[in-house]
Amino acid sequence: MGARVLIVDDLAFIKLIIRDTLEKTGFDVAGEASNGIEAVEMYKRLKPDIVLMDITMPRMDGIQALQEIMKTDSAAKVIMCSALGQQKLIIQSIQLGAKDFIVKPFKPERIVGAIKKALNMP
């Protein structure tokens, strides 16, 4: 059984691309959220092994959601996703506890590599 991943992005087609990539490489998609509020609620309920989270989302952005998740579980493994040109937000997310970041548009091997690295998988 693969690691359980929570996908958080406000764009349906991005979630579809990530889900497809993860399922093809043996990971389990624990759930999908469309904003930070849903992400925090789903993290608490589903307790995924890792979270792939967009930075820019409505209602609660990825940085705020990351802070809330880290308050709930200081050992949480979160990988942030962002568009180019968001370096300040990427640095901030790493300082807040994110394990890695992926720049959009992303390559499937980069998603898988970041998850494996964060989970110490070969």
List the helices and strands and how they pair.
Elements: E1 4-8, H1 12-24, E2 28-33, H2 36-46, E3 50-54, H3 62-72, E4 78-83, H4 87-95, E5 100-104, H5 108-118
Parallel strand pairs: 1-2, 1-3, 3-4, 4-5
Helix pairs in contact: 2-3
Summarize the structure.
With 122 residues, the protein is α/β, with parallel strands linked by helices.
General description of the model:
The protein is an alpha/beta fold. The chain has a single domain, classed as Response regulator (Rossmann fold), CATH 3.40.50.2300. Helices cover 45% and strands 22% of the residues. It has helices at residues 12-24, 36-46, 62-72, 87-95, 108-118, and strands at 4-8, 28-33, 50-54, 78-83, 100-104. The protein has a five-stranded parallel sheet with strand order 2-1-3-4-5, with helices on both faces. The protein is globular.
